[in-house]
Amino acid sequence: MRKSTNQKAWWLVAPVLLLVAFNAFIPLMTVVNYSLQETFGDNVFFWEGVGWFEKVLRSERFHDSMLRQLLFTGMIIAIEVPLGIAVALSMPRKGPWVSVCLVLMALPLLIPWNVVGAMWNIFALPDIGLLGYSLNSMGFDYDFTQQPVSAWMTTVVMDVWHWTSLIVLLCYAGLCSIPDAYYQAARIDGASGWAVFRYIQLPKMKRVLTIAILLRFMDSFMIYTEPFVLTGGGPGNTTTFLSIDLVKIALGQFDLGPAAAMSLIYFLVVLLICWVFYTVMMRNEEQ
Amino acid sequence: MSRIEFKDVRHAYPPAAGQAPVYALKEVSQVWEDGGAYALLGPSGCGKTTLLNIISGLLTPSEGSILFDDREVTQLPTTERHIAQVFQFPVVYDTMTVFDNLAFPLRNRGMPEPRVRERVAEIAAMLDLSDRLQQRAAGLTADGKQKISLGRGLVREDVNAILFDEPLTVIDPHLKWQLRSKLKELHQQIGVTMIYVTHDQVEALTFADQVVVMHDGAVVQVGSPIDLFNKPKHTFVGYFIGSPGMNVLPCKLEQGQPVFANNLLSSGYPVDTDLSGKLEIGIRPEFVSFCDDGIPVQIEKVEDLGRYQVVTVKHEAEQIKMLVGEDQAIPSISPQIEFDPGNLRIYCDDWAVEPQNA
Amino acid sequence: MAIELRNVSFRVGAETHIYETSLSLEPGQFNILLGTTLSGKTSLMRLMAGLEKPSSGTLWANGEEVTGVAVQKRSVAMVYQAFINYPSFSVYDNIASPLKVAGLPKNEVDARVREFADLLQLTPMLGRLPNELSGGQQQRTALARALVKGAELVLLDEPLANLDYKLREELRDELPKMFADTGATVVYATSEPLEALMLGGYTATLNEGRVIQFGKTSSIYRHPENLESARVFSDPPVNIAAIEKRGDTAYLNNSVSWNVPPELATMPDGHYKIGLRPHHLSPDGAGVEVEGEVQIAEISGSESIVRVIVEGNNWVSEAHGIHSYEFGQSVSFFFDSSRCMYFDANEMLIDTQR
């Protein structure tokens, strides 16, 4: 159906446009500005050109935090997606337990992110935290404040706990849209449980899954609050992911130039991957 | 292939708390002979889909038992009943080709691949799908997809019965007859029991050798299409089959003969004068005609339907429909009608009254 | 409302959905748009309602131009094939909604809702929600909502297609009566020729975006302007065959021939086409005899529909009596040659007095 264009709509959108411009667009342009210039304070700027970009791209520090970030994102997607699908498949689709399950699944998503970080911090403390203490008393040598591996594992588990529900809810919505007739036909065809999953459920969930993975990728790539509250980026810099590093450079060292350059590179990487996903998704739609 | 029998089957869906159960199926005892072509005909909500799902095992009846060749199968799961079912909306596995779709039930049962190929080719030829076997199933039209659904049922060699749940619903109207005739052709070729659920009398009467008419959860009449048309046992059957349906008019009995509008009508057979209850006569519009000396009526409406005209007349408060030939003139001055006695039936409390000396 | 379309056409991108057409509908008339699924019926109705703007041409209502007028400002009501009701409103609120939007006083809204609920036998269901109703009841709620508005133009897009066969028959009987008293112009889209004949009124036959013919239903049926119109207004499909006329005889092939009516006899010799309605072809009877190879015989009530191949053409015979034949069997069929419709090389009807 062709909708006729309504010019009056622009007037309604104008306030939002102004707000976005003020809050997002102008600051973004400021960052671009900074990334191309050098400053020593007192609002005195020297043209630097692409110097900062070159410096950042060559810096080992940037490579390290980028690698750490990619590893982190890769790990959590590899865990959260299959786990999310499994939980969604086992949730009931009819009956009194449906609402109970949905509420339980939604709970982790409602908690403010810094509270999540703080919760897990206390929870995992090796001496007084329930998890930390239990692990140590079972014989594991666990201290996330000192050991990089423990810090990583705790961060990953925290993220899985926090965000798997999103994937569960999205996949569940996809599953609920499958008409009963498909399951009935599969029973009649003698299909095994695995065949039902592979040929009916998974294809129907494809679109939802693409959105879920895209969202998780973007969010985890930009993760800041939870790991910062949990580990502060430590021990050392073992859990210093990209945003944490960025903030350290920008606010900690007040190196606006490199920070701005880094954040733009960061922005472009996320944009690139989103674009790839989008194209793949659109191509699937056309098929 | 086997003979399917229903013994005292009743089914009620679980009621809400504190409420009495509502029976979707009330007391069905029916035999489906091996190799027969049956139609379950009735309006929406009459219980025909419930009955079909009980046969296939997708639903377990709350009471009664089902037997396949005298073997109790009531508790047997669907996969072991060897039933194929074609649903209202085509069910195809989108990610697979047409070939893989048809091969799916066979591969699930561990059939060796060369035999699978043979069987799929055989069935594809019967359904005119041979040239599309390598296409992706998702790309076919609605009738193509329904053929695939049907093919998946036919491809299995151990099928006891094929069930159809209003399968032509999504098919383009001018393609419906092709699929209808294909189903009939298949039945003649393969000879497997086929049970076809529909609310469309043309589909039912065309496809089936025996039609089971259902109303409000109960089987009202079982018979051949001709029997149902000429000898409806219940006023509902008379009303539901035939377009327009049978005229049902109140009457009185005098000396074993029906009286309508103070006209003594001959019904062709004597009936018990002591009948009490709601008395009605049923006469199909095809068997009402104009005459020179009969029941006086007023003409309300004349519809020209091409091959015949439907004339709606009124006698006092009763409306009667009649079918008049294409070129036949309709009297304009004091029209009178008569009923063909050979096709007049008497009904008491909606059930047909049989002749006394049968 | 007297509706007039002047040279209206409708294009979406590169596709033309409606070719240039002019149509004039009188107030209070019951009009039918007859055509197959993609013939343009819905597009035409949307143009009349004002939901779409025509790519060219103008629309007139009661003598005033309304081409650009938004649908909310026009006095239009529409009922769809899918039963569309507000799912969270009760039946009462559903029917009352257009009146509340119009700002009518409460007691008047109540009186009108009850009046139309009664007309459509919905009074016991006024408190229920649409998903608690059967299909027929939901559609009647939609109809009531359309009627209560008192719109001057009521558009019905295959409203009975999703209903049970018998329910369709009943509602079909009642519909013209319901609208007859309101004085509204009704436009009813359908793909079933039989439905058009039952409803009466005026019919426009459509095919592939073109309005082929418009006029009183029974005269369109009996005198289709051309072969296309005859095809659209026929179910089962009309029997068509090519004939050769020499002098005053028509030849189907070397063995089958008959005398043609005088109007055709005076025309030049050559190739023509005949159209024969299925119910004029019968396995018994008299007249011109043709050989048909049986494809399938279907029984409906007390009649048989037999599809055969005659001279390479797919023909259908609709006759009284139960006939069952084998696939491939060769059977003789008869038709009365005076029932033939003759079409010239341009597929236009040659008017023969019948």
Description:
The complex is a heterotrimer of chains A (287), B (358) and C (354). In chain A, 75% of the residues lie in helices and 2% in strands. With 287 residues, chain A is mainly α. Chain A has a domain at 64-254: MetI-like fold. A two-stranded antiparallel ribbon of chain A has the order 1-2. The mean pLDDT of chain A is 84. In chain B, helix 2 packs parallel to helix 4 (142-154). In chain B, the strands form six sheets. Chain B has a six-stranded mixed beta sheet, with helices on both faces. In chain B, strands 2-1-4-5 form a four-stranded antiparallel beta sheet, with helices on one face. A four-stranded antiparallel beta sheet of chain B has the order 11-15-22-23. Helix content of chain B is 23%, strand content 33%. With 358 residues, chain B is an alpha+beta fold. Chain B is built from eight helices and 23 strands. Chain C has helices at residues 41-49, 91-101, 106-119, 135-148, 165-180, 193-199, 217-222, 227-232, 262-265, and strands spanning 3-12, 15-25, 30-34, 56-61, 64-65, 76-79, 153-157, 185-190, 202-207, 210-216, 239-246, 249-251, 257-259, 270-276, 281-282, 288-300, 303-310, 313-320, 330-335, 341-343. In chain C, the strands form four sheets. Chain C has a six-stranded mixed beta sheet, sandwiched between helices. The two termini of chain C are 36 Å apart.
